[in-house]
Design a protein that fits this description.
39 strands; 64% strand; 6 helices; mainly beta
């Protein structure tokens, strides 16, 4: 019986991983070459989700697609976490340096059908900044240029119907070309979203409604991404410029104990990002030298006006400038059976200035200088990584009435990994790294950039201290789709939101937790339906067609937050994803996400699941796979609602968005007559480290 069980599990891993691979076909005269792209790929330091070819992920906004990834938690209270680790958000290999409501607005305005893949780097090595904290999510928007002019047009339209009908749409166009001397790409688009948010804060001790608000929001995003690349023999120069302009409006009617209000808020965000990368290449293709310079500016303007008394309640602005220069070098060396050495350096500066009604109330400056050294080696079936990163910080600043506590430190951040390869694509890994997270500018900002009324107040904390992590993980992975893992993080000065009640006023503050620990256990398991309908014996005989696999994917996660002085409880996350191939090669995907209640998330206890949604997706490809049409029904049961109680208060906080939606998405690749076209590496932003953190056999 044990042998039968092991064989069943192995067959499950193999059949799904070998068949749920998404195929691209390039025809070279009479020869057809097929390259396979995996829907999910597990590596020693990261999990890679292919967005471009999965219709249930690339419809709607990026934020909506991310919420469907198993193990990823996105909420107003929780922020963004993956398998228990707080995520630092990168776009095309570069940190966004934004968080909280600004991050949500940015990701809501970005169409998911412009995303190629999402990398969740759970074990950032020494090459990544130590400020990556627990983990990194890298959203890759780049496409591949071809040796001729190519174009891709994407559009979608979705609607929700609650108190009224609201529409969400986006359009984008990608142009790219490559010749003997240089290549270019241009991607432009717009997004328009009408959404609703109903929020309630209740004092459950006396059944008193502190605040009951109804917000009607319109979010607009216009964006442009451009790239040029020049080849100089083996070397390459890449130039990128990105521009995002976000304009959000909201009308909010609120009432509660002692007040009634009608308010209008306006948010404008202008983000510019320019980068120049020079890639030096050698005769030995494994020897690389990269230089990169990056400048990014983020301008934010937030206004809240009372329509009842016709006066301004909040008028705040902020300007953030980020300058970064880094150099990375790597080459093979003789170490055990095979080895590699990598080292590099980084210098960056971030300045952040905020004002309220024209008065500067925070002038913040952060300088970081860093260097790293990392060794990789293989010995028989073992892979090893040992590295360390040195970072020197100088943080200074002033508020309008006091000086910030200076933070000037030099720290070392070691990392180590060992992986045992049982067989190709089956491995057991052990990982450790020490990381730090510097408080985000959103958390530091003393101004309120959220909606507030007479009973609700938000404020940042310019006196927050950096967070230190010691991360430990053990994981066994088989054929990308199946894995079992456990990780624990020892944390000092964790930055969290905390809600306190002062009379009838609810204050949302940002504080440090001196010491805490997060445990996370997770398991992912694919189960082909064929095992249930045909049995094991017949399944083993079946000649699988990669486009015809029907399967169920199960993800289960357990998370426990230990906070000194609190009696905390754990919670479980569940994700079920089913794929069934219908007649005419129509793919039918059902996804269900939920979590248990009663568990602690920092200083909150869940009364509703983080994500409780049942989604349906139908997709089909036409015209030799150039046209993809997708129809979506999300949150069909209208069960997605967030609810929390705040520790040491009698407050119940509940939010409900108009998450039940219906719509369609279209992606069309304009055909070309050039059958000898070849694909070149990514142009729209290329990050150096795209492979596994260990050396494969």
């Amino acid at each position: 019986m044990k042998k039968l069980t092991l064989l069943l599990l192995f067959l499950s891993f193999y059949s799904v991983s070998s068949q749920e691979k998404i195929k691209d076909t390039v025809q070279l005269k009479e020869v057809v070459v097929k390259s396979e792209r995996k829907a999910v790929e597990q590596k020693a330091d990261r999990t890679i989700f292919d967005f471009a070819s999965q219709a249930h992920l690339n419809s709607g906004s990026v934020l909506e697609g991310l919420k469907k990834l198993p193990g990823l938690i996105v909420s107003d209270v929780a922020g963004m976490m993956y398998q228990g680790k707080q995520l630092d958000v990168y776009l095309d290999g570069r940190p966004l340096n934004i968080s909280s409501n600004e991050l949500n607005a940015f990701l809501e305005g970005m169409p998911a059908n412009n995303i190629e893949k999402v990398e969740v780097i759970t074990q950032p090595g020494a090459e990544f900044p130590a400020t990556s904290g627990g983990a990194i999510i890298n959203i890759v928007t780049s496409k591949k240029a071809k040796s001729y002019l190519s174009a891709t047009y994407s559009t979608n339209l979705y609607m929700t119907s609650y108190d009224k009908t609201r529409y969400r749409t986006n359009n984008s166009l990608l142009l790219s070309s490559k010749n003997k001397y240089f290549g270019w790409q241009f991607n432009a688009g717009q997004s328009y979203r009408e959404t609703a948010l109903w929020s309630d804060i209740t004092n459950i001790q006396n059944a008193l409604v502190v605040s009951d608000s109804d917000a009607d929001r319109i979010n607009r995003n216009n964006y442009m991404k451009s790239a040029l690349t020049f080849d100089f023999g083996k070397d390459r120069l890449l130039l990128n410029y990105d521009l995002n302009y976000i304009k959000n409006n909201a009308h909010t009617f609120a009432k509660g104990f002692g007040f009634e209000s009608l308010d209008e808020s306006k948010t404008k965000i202008l983000r510019q990002d320019a980068v120049a990368t020079y890639q030096k290449r050698f005769d030995n293709k494994d020897k690389k030298l990269d230089f990169r310079f990056n400048f990014a500016r983020n301008d934010t303007d937030f206004n809240l006006n009372s329509l009842i008394v016709n006066s301004s309640v909040l008028n705040t602005t902020s300007v953030q400038d980020f300058i970064n220069f880094k150099a990375d070098y790597s080459q093979p060396i003789k170490l055990l059976e095979e080895g590699k050495i990598s080292f590099g350096s980084l210098i960056e500066n971030l300045s952040f200035i905020t004002d309220s009604f024209g008065v500067t109330n925070l002038d913040y400056d952060r300088r970081t200088a860093a260097g790293y050294l990392e060794l990789q080696a293989t010995y028989k079936k073992f892979d090893f990584i040992l590295g360390t990163r040195a970072e020197d910080y100088s943080i200074t600043g002033n508020t309008n009435n006091s000086e910030l506590i200076p933070f000037k430190q030099f720290r070392l951040f070691p990392n180590a990994s060992m992986q045992y390869n049982f067989a190709p694509q089956i491995f057991l890994s052990f990982n450790y790294n020490k990381k730090i997270t510097l408080p985000s500018t959103s958390s530091l900002n003393p101004n309120n950039t959220n909606y507030q009324n007479q009973n609700i107040n938000f404020a940042g904390n310019p006196f927050l201290q950096p967070t230190i992590f010691d991360n430990f993980e053990v994981k066994i992975s088989a054929f990308d789709y199946a894995f079992i893992g456990y990780n624990v993080s020892e944390i000092n000065n964790q930055v969290v939101n905390r809600v306190v009640l002062d009379g009838f006023e609810v204050n949302n503050n940002v504080v440090n937790i001196p010491e805490m620990r997060i445990h996370n256990f997770n398991i992912g398991m694919p189960l082909p339906y064929m095992l249930f309908t045909k049995g094991l014996k017949e399944t083993m005989k079946f000649d699988f067609n990669p486009d015809k696999i029907n399967f169920l994917y199960l993800y289960v996660g357990y998370q426990m937050h230990e906070i000194h002085g609190l009696n905390t409880k754990a919670f479980w996350n569940f994700n079920l994803m089913s794929q069934i191939v219908l007649p005419m090669d129509i793919k039918f995907i059902t996804e269900f996400n939920t979590s248990t209640t009663g568990g602690n998330f920092f200083y909150f206890v869940g009364t509703e699941p983080f994500e409780n949604s049942l989604d349906f997706n139908f997709s089909k490809k036409f015209l030799k796979d150039r046209l993809t049409v997708s129809i979506d029904f999300d949150d069909v049961l209208n069960s997605n609602k967030q609810g929390f109680t705040a520790i040491e208060t009698p407050l119940l906080l509940e939010n409900k968005y108009d998450t039940r939606r219906f719509g369609f998405s279209i992606n069309y690749k304009i055909p070309t007559r050039n059958k000898l076209a070849k694909e070149d590496p990514n142009l729209l932003n290329k990050e150096k480290k795209e492979e596994t953190g260990t050396i494969s056999n």
